[in-house]
């Protein structure tokens, strides 16, 4: 298993990324190799500083870096030797089984679509997040920022994409799919969610349970929560703020500790011909380590191939 990791992406790169890669190398099986992409001299110096003498972390040189504030499409076009472009090149050429970065989110999304491309039959790829449940498990929330405005047909596909992710990555059998709405009643919603409800209800390949409300995000009513990227991103950022507020007030609780973005480490891009994970810009070594673990899990379960099989049927 080969996991490509953008060493230059994130507010604390490359130090935090290299330290996260070292943590991942310690906790993953010996069959997993990590390829750090970025300035070779800088990365080698950091590995040497930490006393790394193993052979499972390798360095792939990339002479350019896409900044967090750069325009995604322009940056990818103008910087073909950036760490993100090189990472997606490795993924597209099968030199890596997964690619992850805490760098420019837009560049990661655009790179996924233009390099490994979306799976045939999928209207738009989704960016997913894993939501902690009061029962102790996790649920899938999608979309959380890839597509701000969604057509009903896209929301229907998110139900299928999220179900496959829940089954393979979270080991949930026959996951329950809920549509985020402003009321449980079938007739409620917008000009998008009302027809989306109808499509999801008629879709026999998923276990659709109907509309859910904001109060249901963290309970066990649904394993997969479907919404547009605008709504999903608001939910995700709200959850992050709850964690920050609780810590500021010196409150400790095992459930709310799981709101920490570090716990999962990243958001998978679902529906493309490869395994890509986008990390938080402020990723710490712990977050980077967990992002690599998530990428490895996606590669192990062959989730991209499952999407191809499902949507070509």
What is the N-to-C succession of helices and strands?
A: EHEHEHHEHEEHEHEEHHEEHH
Structural class: alpha/beta
Describe the oligomeric state of these chains in a short phrase: single chain
Number of helix segments? 11
Largest sheet: 11 strands, mixed
Strand content: 15-25%
Give the low-pLDDT segments: none
Folded structure, characterized:
This protein is an alpha/beta fold and 313 residues long. Helices cover 42% and strands 17% of the residues. Strands 3-2-1-4-11-10-5-6-9-7-8 form an eleven-stranded mixed sheet, sandwiched between helices. The protein is globular.
What characteristics describe this protein?
11-stranded mixed beta sheet, alpha/beta, 11 helices, globular, 11 strands, 313 residues
Fold blueprint:
Elements: E1 2-6, H1 15-27, E2 33-38, H2 40-49, E3 57-61, H3 72-78, H4 83-92, E4 98-101, H5 105-116, E5 126-132, E6 138-142, H6 152-169, E7 176-180, H7 193-202, E8 207-212, E9 224-226, H8 229-248, H9 254-257, E10 267-270, E11 276-278, H10 285-301, H11 303-312
Parallel strand pairs: 1-2, 1-4, 2-3, 4-11, 6-9, 7-8, 7-9
Antiparallel strand pairs: 5-6, 5-10, 10-11
Helix pairs in contact: 1-10, 3-5, 4-5, 6-7
Brief description of this entry?
By secondary structure, the protein is of the alpha/beta class. It has helices at residues 15-27, 40-49, 72-78, 83-92, 105-116, 152-169, 193-202, 229-248, 254-257, 285-301, 303-312; strands spanning 2-6, 33-38, 57-61, 98-101, 126-132, 138-142, 176-180, 207-212, 224-226, 267-270, 276-278.
């Amino acid at each position: 298993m080969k996991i490509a990791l953008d060493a230059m992406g994130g507010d604390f790169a490359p130090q935090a990324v290299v330290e996260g890669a070292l943590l991942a190398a310690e906790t993953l099986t010996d069959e997993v190799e990590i390829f750090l992409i970025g300035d070779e001299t800088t990365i080698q110096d950091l590995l040497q500083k930490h006393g790394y003498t193993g052979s499972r972390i390798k360095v792939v040189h990339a002479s350019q870096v896409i900044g967090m504030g750069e325009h995604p499409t322009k940056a990818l076009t103008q910087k073909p030797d950036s760490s993100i472009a090189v990472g997606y090149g490795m993924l597209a050429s099968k030199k890596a089984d997964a690619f992850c970065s805490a760098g420019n989110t837009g560049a990661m999304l655009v790179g996924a679509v233009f390099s490994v491309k979306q799976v045939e039959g999928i209207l738009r790829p989704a960016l997913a997040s894993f939501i902690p449940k009061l029962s102790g498990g996790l649920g899938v929330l999608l979309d959380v920022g890839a597509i701000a405005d969604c057509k009903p047909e896209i929301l229907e596909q998110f139900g299928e994409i999220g179900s496959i992710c829940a089954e393979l990555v979270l080991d949930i059998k026959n996951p329950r799919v809920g549509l985020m709405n402003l009321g449980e009643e079938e007739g409620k919603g917008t000009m998008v969610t009302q027809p989306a409800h109808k499509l999801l209800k008629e879709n026999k390949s998923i276990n659709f349970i109907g509309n859910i409300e904001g109060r249901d995000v963290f309970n066990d009513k649904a394993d997969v929560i479907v919404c547009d990227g605008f709504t999903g991103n608001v939910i995700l950022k709200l959850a992050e703020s709850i964690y920050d507020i609780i810590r500021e007030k010196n409150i400790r609780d095992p459930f709310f500790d799981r709101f920490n973005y570090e716990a999962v480490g990243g958001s998978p891009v679902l529906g493309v011909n490869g395994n890509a994970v986008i990390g938080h810009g402020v990723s710490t070594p712990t977050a980077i380590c967990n992002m690599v673990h998530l990428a490895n899990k996606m590669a192990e379960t062959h989730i991209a191939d499952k999407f191809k099989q499902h949507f070509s049927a």
